[in-house]
Design brief:
This is GPAA1 protein. Keywords: Membrane, Transmembrane, Transmembrane helix. The protein is α/β, with parallel strands linked by helices. 52% of the residues lie in helices and 14% in strands. The strands form two sheets. A nine-stranded mixed β-sheet has the order 6-2-3-5-4-7-10-8-9, with helices on both faces. The protein has a three-stranded antiparallel β-sheet with strand order 1-12-11.
């Protein structure tokens, strides 16, 4: 919590020498042409009932680009009720501007998703206007790819997989007909109005990956130069850091980033580029009720300036941070500052495990009165301890596989849709795990022993410490959220008859499902859009279905991590509470 206080944070700075100066003069003046392209694109999209592929190909070719199309298709494991799709078919259109002053071994991407309705039409119009302007300039040392993708993230994933000649998600797509150089950086543009009041930057990618901090600094530097208001997490920066409102504003911005990063969901099309070691951000134009507006020309100059700086790169972004938290666009918390917070939490598990080890060692020592023989007889066998661990992990396997595999059977016997069947099956398996025969040790050994639950808890504590440690290295926010909720309770629970109910309730309150529910509620409070308990429950059900879809469509690791590791580990502690 203290890291959100400005004196405890570092000021952002540009580490890459090629990015250092913003003294280039931006000359983009095609704002009206961008609006004209927007109107024409919207009319063609309405006429064709989808993405106007032929019109885009014709328009890009008329601007001197090498134009290619890529068709793709994907069948979802179950219908996506949020976006109302099941069998997805689409086409990506991309044009390549070859570098006139370079070996054409490197490239930069500017992408704009073709969204449903009137959303993002202005982004496509500005992309075409920028392509026309960039074609007339001779200083480009890198190829520039102008990509218009259909079906948002699915289209982006199809294009990236085909470009790099891999297939990680089972997408079916046509071969890539034309390629540019190795992609160094990418900007994804989202604009839905002719004027904006501010520009928001989204940085969180798939599985919590973040772009190099220099790219975020570059965005901020050119926003300052062009005078555009810039935000992160939808919040403007405040200067009154030494007041309570200033601190709470900084804290809420940082917590929003933690929650978004912890979800593992890409917060824009840029999130899938990061998997291929391509530094990328999504720039989102906001048109609010502020009086001062910025037109397309200003936004075009902002993007032009960033591209001219990226054109100067001599090597990939590597000098600045890849692991950080941002309470504002001018301050950041580096990995060296926030990892000790997790380290102190993990230390609780290690110390508690050491305490149990000492207790087990003391109880195994021979006693002078000869009572040690009885102690040795009651020592737990490997089978006694392995059985509950195996049962818990088998439950996790059922939670991972059965919801999708059993949807056909569920809709035949119950009046539910496929999506509802998947979500309700997952919840049913999750709840059923609490009622498993957690006292198998009594069947196997005849009686539960004091040493039995201590040995199981010693293993569970070390297992949880390793799980959270590995998770934190991949996605700090997710690991920290789980650590803050699970560690205090799991470290101190015991199977005492008098406090069994209290410990059981405490353990349920820190279970993965409850943590997700509370995180959703906290997120809506932080974005100042509070929800009722019923609405929060609806968002919870949607989050479960989207988490499963994200895993199958893009390779998100959150659902398998929770189902196969975190939930079984939590069940082991549930077993300890009800040890007899």
């Amino acid at each position: 919590m203290g890291l959100a206080f400005e004196p405890f944070m570092l000021r952002t700075y540009m580490s890459e020498n090629a990015m250092g100066s913003t003294m280039v003069e931006e000359k983009f003046v095609f704002g009206e042409r961008a609006i004209s392209y927007t109107r024409e694109f919207a009319g063609q999209k309405k006429k064709t009932g989808g993405m106007p592929v032929d019109w885009l190909v014709k328009t890009m070719k008329s601007r001197g680009l090498e134009v290619y199309t890529q068709s793709f298709s994907q069948t979802l494991p179950f219908p996506d009720e949020v976006k109302e799709r099941y069998m997805v078919r689409g086409t990506n259109v991309y044009g390549i501007l070859r570098a006139p002053r370079g070996p054409r071994t490197e490239s930069i991407v500017l992408s704009a998703p073709c969204s449903e309705g009137n959303n993002n039409n202005q982004a496509v119009g500005l992309l075409l206007a920028l392509a026309s302007y960039f074609r007339s300039q001779i200083y480009w040392a890198k190829d520039i790819i102008f990509l218009v993708n259909e079906h948002d993230l699915i289209g982006t994933e199809a294009w990236l997989e085909a470009y790099h000649d891999v297939n990680m998600t089972g997408l079916r797509s046509s071969p890539m007909q034309g390629r540019a150089g190795a992609i160094q950086a990418a900007l994804s543009l989202e604009l839905s109005s002719d004027v904006i009041t501010s520009m928001d930057v989204a940085i969180e990618g798939l599985n919590g990956q973040l772009p190099n901090l220099d790219l975020v600094n570059l965005f901020y530097a050119f926003c300052q130069k062009t005078g555009v208001l810039c935000t992160i997490q939808g919040k403007l920066q405040r200067n009154d850091w030494n007041t309570l409102p200033g601190y709470t504003h900084s804290l809420s911005t940082m917590l929003l980033m933690v929650l978004k990063q912890g979800s593992g969901r890409p917060q824009g099309d840029h999130g899938l580029f990061l998997r291929y070691h391509i530094e990328a951000v999504t720039m989102r134009g906001i048109n609010s009720f502020r009086q001062y507006k910025f037109d397309m020309t200003t936004v075009g100059k902002l993007i032009e300036g960033m591209f001219r700086k990226l054109n100067n790169l001599l090597e990939r972004f590597h000098q600045s941070y890849f692991f950080y938290l941002m309470p504002s666009l001018t301050r950041f918390v580096s990995i060296g500052y926030y990892m000790p917070a997790f380290g102190f939490l993990a230390l609780i598990l290690v110390l508690r495990a050491l305490d149990l080890w000492v207790q087990l060692s003391d109880s195994a020592r021979p006693l002078e009165d000869g009572a040690s023989e009885g102690e040795q007889d009651s020592s737990p066998s490997l089978l006694t301890l392995a059985t509950p661990v195996i049962i818990c992990h088998l439950t996790g396997l059922a939670l991972y596989y059965l919801p999708v595999l059993s949807q056909e059977m569920a809709i035949q016997h119950f009046p539910v849709s496929e999506t509802e069947a998947v979500v309700l099956t997952a919840i049913a398996i999750y709840v059923a795990g609490l009622a498993l025969p957690h006292n198998t040790h009594r069947v196997l050994s005849g009686a539960g022993t004091e040493r039995g639950w201590r040995s199981l808890k010693l293993f569970s504590l070390l297992y949880l410490a390793v799980l959270l440690g590995c998770t934190t290295l991949i996605n700090f926010s997710l690991g920290f959220i789980l650590a803050v909720t699970m560690i205090p309770v799991t470290a101190f629970i015991q199977p005492h008859r008098s406090s069994k109910v209290l410990h059981g309730v405490a353990l349920i309150l820190v279970s993965p499902a409850t943590t997700l529910l509370l995180s959703i509620y906290l997120y809506h409070e932080l974005i100042e859009y509070p929800v009722t308990l019923l609405e929060c429950w609806q968002h919870f059900l949607t989050a479960v279905s989207q988490g499963i879809l994200d895993h199958h469509l893009y390779g998100s690791l959150l659902y398998p991590l929770i189902a196969l590791f975190i939930y079984p580990c939590w069940l082991q502690f549930w077993n300890i509470v009800f040890w007899k």
